[in-house]
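Would you kindly consider the sequence and fold I have copied below?
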Amino acid sequence: MDLILWRHADAREARDELTDLDRPLSAKGERQAAKMAKWLNLHLPESTRVLVSPALRTRQTAEGLERRKRVIEALGPEETVDSLLHAARWPDAKEPVVVVGHQPTLGLTAAYLLASVMQPWPIRKGALWWIKRRERDGRIEVLLHASLTAEHV
C-alpha cells in the first residue's frame, strides 16, 4: 500500500473573523500547492484515493489534483493517528491514498509507521511524505519512498 501524507500548504494567519477551519491559503501556499499537485498528477496512478481534512486550507491544497476528493471529518486538525490510518484503510487499501492534513498528526503518523514511535516528526507546509508498505522475502516492510517539499519539485 502507498500512503502519501501531504501537509496543507502555507495558510493565512488566524484572525478574529476566521475560525481555524476557515483559514485560506496564502499566495505562497497557492504556489506551493500548485507545484506539488502538478508533480503528484505526474506520479500518482489514476486509482489513487484523495482524502482531505474539512479545513479550507487542506481543500485548497488538494484542488490541483486531477482526482475526486473526499472530505473526511476524522482528518481535522485535532484528530489522531488512529483516525487517519482508519480513514486511509492502512494497511489493507489496494489503491494508493493521499491524505491532505495537518501537523502534528501527519508527523506522528510518519514516525509511527516508519519507526514504531509516537514522535511529532516535522513535515513542512506544502510538503509530502510518500510511505510504502510491501512484502519482501516473506517480511512486511514499511519504507519512505519519497519526502518532498514544494520548493524541490
Observations:
- The radius of gyration is 15 Å.
- The helical segments are 27-43, 56-62, 81-88, 105-115.
